Amino acid sequence: MDAEKSSSSSFEDLSNLNEQERAELASSVVSEPAQTKTPVSGDAPTDQEQKLESESNPKTEETEPESECMDILGNGTLLKKVLQKGHSELRPESKDLVTISYTGRLDDGTVVEEQTNLVVQIDDVEVVQGLDMALKLMNEGEVAEVIVNPRFAYGEIGLKDPTELDPVIRTVPPNATITYTVTLVSMREESDIEARTYTSRKEIGNKKRLRGNYWMKRQEYNLAIQ
């Protein structure tokens, strides 16, 4: 009986010792301070961070891309760029009558040609050949820049004096590239020649004669007979 009590007492003493050890261990442990979470590069930015970033890097307004320059002949001698789109999808065809306004400048900015509301017939070369060709690629109401190589302008001869056809033309030096700003104001089909009056037909014939003589004097024989 005493042995059982002693054995029981020994067990109780060991149990108390373990509890004491646990208490001492618990009291010796110092609680670690809470760690703050550091942002990771992969974490999504907060609303405040996004706001600060947008204020420091304001977005620039997007602008419409400029119109591309059309290489009409594919060799760089006749270029066309739309400055203002037309109000119609219609384009003039051969022998149509068009009303145009234009200004021609040399590379240094000198104005050498200027016309307002001039009526010309497509493919009759009543203006320089390069401009005549470009008109067929313009829409009604369009404003375009047309850069004409000397070959399709006034060539090696240039234009020394005002002509009977275009009295407002200034002197154009030989081998000069001319940049035209041209507006296709309006266009219409040519009326039936048989329906015209005698006076009207005479005016047309005289106009073509003067044009032919002009190109003949410049030894542009192909243009003279068009």
From TrEMBL:
GO function terms (MF aspect): peptidyl-prolyl cis-trans isomerase activity; protein folding chaperone
Pfam families registered for this protein in UniProt: FKBP_C
Catalyzed reactions: [protein]-peptidylproline (omega=180) = [protein]-peptidylproline (omega=0)
Segments for region (Disordered): 1-68
EC number, UniProt record: 5.2.1.8
Basic and acidic residues bias (residue ranges): 48-62
GO cellular component: cytosol; endomembrane system; membrane; mitochondrial envelope
PPIase FKBP-type domain mapped to chain residues: 95-188
Positions with biased composition (Low complexity): 1-10
Polar residues bias (residue ranges): 28-39
InterPro entries assigned: FKBP4/5/8-like, PPIase_dom_sf, PPIase_FKBP_dom
Keywords associated with the record: Isomerase, Repeat, Rotamase, TPR repeat
GO process annotations (BP): negative regulation of apoptotic process
Cross-referenced PANTHER family: PEPTIDYLPROLYL ISOMERASE
Name assigned to this protein: peptidylprolyl isomerase
Species of the source: Anopheles maculatus
Lineage, top ranks: Eukaryota, Metazoa, Ecdysozoa, Arthropoda, Hexapoda
